[in-house]
Design a protein that fits this description.
This protein has 1 helix and 16 strands. By secondary structure, it is an all-beta fold. β11 and β12 form a beta hairpin. The longest helix has 4 residues.
């Protein structure tokens, strides 16, 4: 059982229909671990938080021209006090980074910082950044580690990486995309071309492979 999945889905969440313009590039919705809060991208492209018990709603983050745009992949911290999301990754011409917003006061902080291609940009036309980050999954142990999908624009491959929120260090673990943490926060599942791998976060060693055959 993945730590990022909720065992009980709120009935209120089941009654909500989310609509957005077809031209919009962002997407995603998430329930808090206790099933009381729903985060989603609204029809005005803002990032919203809905209290399912009290049926109240608030705009957490509004799109800002030239800044935060194209929100996707919202995911709650284990204590429900913060919400992680990817932003500004609508096309490969702009960086895609992970941000976190504190629900109590609306403070936003950037977690990853995509590096520009520099000299190799000529080999990657239309991709001015070396990597693009998306799909944040916060660790269930409250350690401040976040699993992310790291798109390598030079190799044109996806990798599962873990970000240490306090230091900003990004450690690439394996080729593939993150699925979720185990409840201990010591291991995580990664989707690969050959199936699903369970990896140790420390060192990235493979514990076992769940074959797709």
């Amino acid at each position: 059982q993945f730590a990022n999945s909720q065992s009980t889905i709120s009935e209120e969440a089941g009654r909500i229909v989310i609509t957005r313009p077809h031209s919009y590039l962002g997407d995603g919705a998430a329930l808090s671990f206790d099933g009381k809060l729903l985060a989603y991208i609204g029809e005005d492209n803002g990032l919203y938080l809905r209290d399912l018990a009290h049926k109240s709603e608030q705009l957490l983050v509004r799109e800002v021209d030239g800044g935060l745009t194209v929100f996707s992949g919202p995911n709650f911290s284990s204590n429900g006090e913060q919400l992680y999301f990817a932003a500004s990754g609508g096309t490969s011409s702009y960086p895609s980074n992970i941000y976190v917003v504190t629900l109590a006061n609306g403070t936003i902080r950037q977690v990853t910082h995509a590096v520009r291609n520099g000299e190799s940009q000529a080999d990657q036309p239309g991709r001015p950044y070396k990597e693009y980050f998306s799909t944040p999954l916060a660790s269930p142990d409250g350690s401040g580690r976040v699993l992310v999908r790291e798109r390598d624009a030079v190799l044109e491959k996806d990798f599962m990486a873990v970000v240490d929120e306090s230091s900003g260090n990004v450690t690439t673990l394996a080729e593939g995309t993150p699925i979720g943490w185990t409840s201990s926060g010591m291991q995580a599942y990664c989707s690969t071309q050959d199936g699903v791998e369970l990896l140790n976060i420390a060192g990235g060693s493979v514990v076992r492979v769940l074959s797709g055959d």
